[in-house]
Task: inverse folding
């Protein structure tokens, strides 16, 4: 189905720059569809009861007291919702961990907050998406 949109010229110029950054494989229409899907996914992820998949990336110093043990313990408490995790040693002190979570959106965010709120976790971010299917 066709759908045309009026757009101010300066916005269109910036949009075309975005299209160019996404490479040759995507044209304006495809990038518009991607942006619409992004917005819908974001909206769905905010709806209580929605099943989401999340990647939580954290950075921490493994020397920090019993941090590793605490992080491990949280992951065992919620093992049904933790699909996988990957640990990377960044240098002699710092570690990066990517934890993949799957479950109801509120619960996934709660588990992520527990991990992010653990003393010694220096920074991190949860990125969620739906398991939904779009055209
Ligand atoms: Ni490490």
Result:
């Amino acid at each position: 189905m066709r759908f045309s949109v009026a757009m101010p010229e300066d916005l269109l110029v910036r949009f075309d720059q975005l299209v160019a950054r996404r490479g040759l494989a995507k044209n304006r229409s495809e990038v518009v569809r991607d942006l619409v899907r992004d917005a819908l996914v974001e909206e769905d992820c905010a709806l209580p009861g929605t099943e989401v998949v999340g990647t939580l990336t954290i950075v921490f110093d493994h020397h920090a007291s019993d941090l590793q043990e605490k992080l491990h313990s949280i992951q065992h408490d919620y093992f049904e919702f933790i699909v996988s995790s990957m640990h990377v040693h960044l240098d002699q002190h710092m570690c990066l961990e990517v934890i993949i979570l799957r479950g109801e959106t509120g619960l996934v965010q709660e588990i992520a907050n527990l991990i992010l709120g653990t003393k010694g976790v220096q920074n991190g971010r949860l990125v969620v998406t739906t398991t939904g299917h779009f055209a």
Q: What stands out?
A: The first helix runs from residue 9 to 21. DSSP finds four helices and four strands in the chain. The helical segments are 9-21, 28-45, 67-77, 105-116.
